[in-house]
Amino acid sequence: MSGYSAAAVKFPFWFYEFKQTMEWQRDSEQWAQVKRHIIDENWFKLSSISRRQSLYSEVAGRVQSLTPAISNVFFKTDLDNQRLINLIGMMNTNRLFKAFILRTYRDELMLGDLKLEDYEIQAFFRQIQTEDDAAAKWQDETVQRLGSSFRNYLTQAGLAKLDGTTLLVTRPLLDPPLEDALVADNHQDYVAALTGR
C-alpha cells in the first residue's frame, strides 16, 4: 500500500452500521444482499445515493478485513470490545489511522501522560507529511479535518474522553479472546498499541 490517504475526513465511526453489517454476514447474507439493504433499501436512512455507496464501501471493507477468529469474537464479547473490533477494521483499511494508533495513541499509554493535546495530533500529521509525498500536499484545512475525525474515532471507540480541547486517553480492557485472536493473526502490534505494552 503506497501513500497515505486523507479519505478519513469522509467516514464517521459508523459503529451501528458496522454492527448491522456484521449481523447480516453472520446470518449468511451475501454481499449483494448487504449492498441492496444499504444502497437500494436505504436501511440507514442516508440522504443521497453517493453517501449510501460510500457507507457500503467503507463498512464492507472493514468487515471483510477481519479474520474469521475476530469476527467470531465480535458476537461473544461486550459492547466496548465490539467498538474496538470496528476500530480494528478501520486500522486494517486505513493506513493513516493505523499509523496514528500505533504511534501517537500507543505513546500516550506508554509514557503515562494520558493527555492527547491538539498540538500532538497535529505533530503526527506534520511528521507524516515529511515522510510521504501525497501527504505533503495536504492543505491545512485537510489536516484539521483529519485531526477532528481521529479525535471522534477515539472518543467513539472508548479510547479517550473529551475534556475541553484535550483528549483524556483511556486504556481499553481487551477481552482475552480478542487479544488471542489478534496475536494469532500476527497483530501483536495492535495489542501493544491498545494496551500500551
From TrEMBL:
Gene3D superfamilies with a match to the protein in the record: uncharacterized protein from magnetospirillum magneticum domain
Protein name, as recorded: DUF1819 family protein
UniProt cross-references to InterPro entries, sorted A to Z: BrxA (IPR014948), BrxA_sf (IPR023137)
Species in which this protein is naturally found: Lacticaseibacillus hegangensis
Pfam family membership, one: BrxA
